[in-house]
Design brief:
Elements (H helix, E strand, L loop, with lengths): L1 H24 L18 E3 L5 E6 L2 E7 L2 E7 L13 E2 L5 E3 L3 E4 L2 E11 L1 H13 L17
Protein backbone atom coordinates (compact mmCIF):
# COMPACT_ATOMS: atom_id res chain seq x y z
CA UNK A 1 0.00 0.00 0.00
CA UNK A 2 2.83 2.40 0.84
CA UNK A 3 4.51 1.64 -2.47
CA UNK A 4 1.25 2.34 -4.34
CA UNK A 5 0.78 5.65 -2.51
CA UNK A 6 4.40 6.68 -3.19
CA UNK A 7 3.91 5.91 -6.90
CA UNK A 8 0.79 8.09 -7.05
CA UNK A 9 2.60 10.97 -5.34
CA UNK A 10 5.53 10.73 -7.81
CA UNK A 11 3.23 10.59 -10.85
CA UNK A 12 1.24 13.58 -9.59
CA UNK A 13 4.44 15.60 -9.07
CA UNK A 14 5.64 14.67 -12.55
CA UNK A 15 2.36 15.71 -14.14
CA UNK A 16 2.36 19.00 -12.27
CA UNK A 17 5.87 19.74 -13.52
CA UNK A 18 4.84 18.96 -17.09
CA UNK A 19 1.75 21.14 -16.81
CA UNK A 20 3.76 24.15 -15.66
CA UNK A 21 6.22 23.65 -18.52
CA UNK A 22 3.43 23.40 -21.07
CA UNK A 23 1.87 26.59 -19.69
CA UNK A 24 5.21 28.37 -20.01
CA UNK A 25 5.62 27.22 -23.61
CA UNK A 26 2.22 28.67 -24.47
CA UNK A 27 3.21 32.08 -23.08
CA UNK A 28 4.56 35.04 -25.05
CA UNK A 29 7.52 33.07 -26.46
CA UNK A 30 5.07 30.86 -28.35
CA UNK A 31 4.66 33.68 -30.92
CA UNK A 32 8.18 33.46 -32.31
CA UNK A 33 9.51 29.92 -32.45
CA UNK A 34 12.90 28.73 -33.60
CA UNK A 35 11.17 26.18 -35.83
CA UNK A 36 9.44 29.02 -37.74
CA UNK A 37 12.87 30.39 -38.72
CA UNK A 38 14.64 27.07 -39.28
CA UNK A 39 15.97 26.40 -42.76
CA UNK A 40 16.30 23.18 -44.70
CA UNK A 41 18.02 20.31 -42.88
CA UNK A 42 21.79 20.18 -43.24
CA UNK A 43 24.22 17.32 -42.61
CA UNK A 44 26.74 19.20 -40.45
CA UNK A 45 27.90 22.56 -39.14
CA UNK A 46 31.18 24.08 -38.02
CA UNK A 47 31.35 24.81 -34.31
CA UNK A 48 34.57 26.56 -33.41
CA UNK A 49 32.91 27.89 -30.24
CA UNK A 50 29.94 26.78 -28.18
CA UNK A 51 28.30 29.99 -27.01
CA UNK A 52 25.21 28.51 -25.38
CA UNK A 53 22.06 26.54 -25.89
CA UNK A 54 18.33 26.83 -25.28
CA UNK A 55 15.89 23.96 -24.83
CA UNK A 56 13.05 24.38 -27.33
CA UNK A 57 10.88 21.26 -27.10
CA UNK A 58 11.20 17.88 -25.43
CA UNK A 59 13.23 16.71 -28.42
CA UNK A 60 14.74 19.99 -29.72
CA UNK A 61 17.36 22.48 -28.66
CA UNK A 62 18.91 25.58 -30.21
CA UNK A 63 22.71 25.67 -30.14
CA UNK A 64 24.46 29.04 -30.47
CA UNK A 65 27.90 28.92 -32.07
CA UNK A 66 28.52 32.62 -32.62
CA UNK A 67 26.82 35.92 -33.35
CA UNK A 68 23.66 35.11 -35.31
CA UNK A 69 24.82 31.49 -35.74
CA UNK A 70 22.15 29.23 -34.26
CA UNK A 71 21.24 25.67 -35.17
CA UNK A 72 18.02 23.89 -34.28
CA UNK A 73 18.90 20.31 -33.37
CA UNK A 74 16.23 17.64 -33.16
CA UNK A 75 17.22 14.55 -31.21
CA UNK A 76 15.70 11.11 -31.60
CA UNK A 77 13.03 10.49 -29.00
CA UNK A 78 13.52 10.05 -26.06
CA UNK A 79 16.19 12.34 -24.64
CA UNK A 80 15.43 12.52 -20.92
CA UNK A 81 15.41 15.84 -19.13
CA UNK A 82 16.46 17.89 -22.17
CA UNK A 83 14.11 20.77 -21.27
CA UNK A 84 15.26 20.73 -17.65
CA UNK A 85 18.98 20.01 -18.08
CA UNK A 86 21.45 22.30 -16.35
CA UNK A 87 24.08 21.62 -18.98
CA UNK A 88 24.72 19.57 -22.10
CA UNK A 89 27.64 18.22 -24.04
CA UNK A 90 28.02 17.80 -27.78
CA UNK A 91 30.29 15.23 -29.36
CA UNK A 92 32.07 16.27 -32.54
CA UNK A 93 34.84 15.27 -34.88
CA UNK A 94 37.23 18.18 -34.88
CA UNK A 95 35.09 21.28 -35.01
CA UNK A 96 32.28 19.78 -37.10
CA UNK A 97 29.01 18.49 -35.65
CA UNK A 98 27.01 16.13 -37.83
CA UNK A 99 24.06 13.76 -37.56
CA UNK A 100 26.32 10.98 -36.28
CA UNK A 101 27.30 13.01 -33.22
CA UNK A 102 25.40 13.01 -29.93
CA UNK A 103 23.91 15.48 -27.48
CA UNK A 104 24.88 14.42 -23.96
CA UNK A 105 22.33 15.08 -21.21
CA UNK A 106 22.93 13.72 -17.71
CA UNK A 107 25.44 11.14 -19.02
CA UNK A 108 22.94 9.90 -21.63
CA UNK A 109 23.92 10.15 -25.28
CA UNK A 110 20.99 11.33 -27.40
CA UNK A 111 21.16 10.68 -31.14
CA UNK A 112 20.90 13.70 -33.44
CA UNK A 113 18.03 13.22 -35.83
CA UNK A 114 18.13 16.54 -37.71
CA UNK A 115 20.12 19.80 -37.87
CA UNK A 116 18.66 23.04 -39.25
CA UNK A 117 20.22 26.52 -39.42
CA UNK A 118 18.09 29.24 -37.82
CA UNK A 119 17.71 32.65 -39.49
CA UNK A 120 18.37 34.72 -36.35
CA UNK A 121 18.56 38.02 -38.25
CA UNK A 122 14.98 37.53 -39.47
CA UNK A 123 13.82 36.33 -36.05
CA UNK A 124 15.32 39.40 -34.34
CA UNK A 125 13.86 41.70 -37.03
CA UNK A 126 10.41 40.19 -36.43
CA UNK A 127 10.87 40.55 -32.67
CA UNK A 128 11.82 44.22 -33.17
CA UNK A 129 8.78 44.77 -35.42
CA UNK A 130 6.55 43.32 -32.70
CA UNK A 131 8.20 45.60 -30.15
CA UNK A 132 7.59 48.67 -32.31
CA UNK A 133 3.85 47.99 -32.56
CA UNK A 134 1.92 50.09 -30.06
CA UNK A 135 0.14 48.09 -27.37
CA UNK A 136 1.97 44.84 -28.16
CA UNK A 137 4.52 43.34 -25.80
CA UNK A 138 7.09 41.31 -27.74
CA UNK A 139 8.35 37.98 -26.47
CA UNK A 140 11.66 38.17 -24.68
CA UNK A 141 14.67 36.83 -26.50
CA UNK A 142 15.35 33.36 -25.08
CA UNK A 143 18.52 33.56 -23.03
CA UNK A 144 20.98 30.87 -24.04
CA UNK A 145 22.34 28.67 -21.31
CA UNK A 146 26.09 28.63 -21.32
CA UNK A 147 26.99 25.93 -18.85
CA UNK A 148 28.75 23.08 -20.60
CA UNK A 149 29.31 19.58 -19.36
Amino acid sequence: MKRYLASIVCITALLAGCASTIARLKGPDADLKYSDYAGKPITSFWMSSFDGWTPVEKDQLAVRTGINKVYLITVAPYCPDLRFAQGIGITSMGDYVDRFDKIIVEHIRCLIKQIQPVDMKKMEADRKALKDRPGVTPPASPAPQSNKT
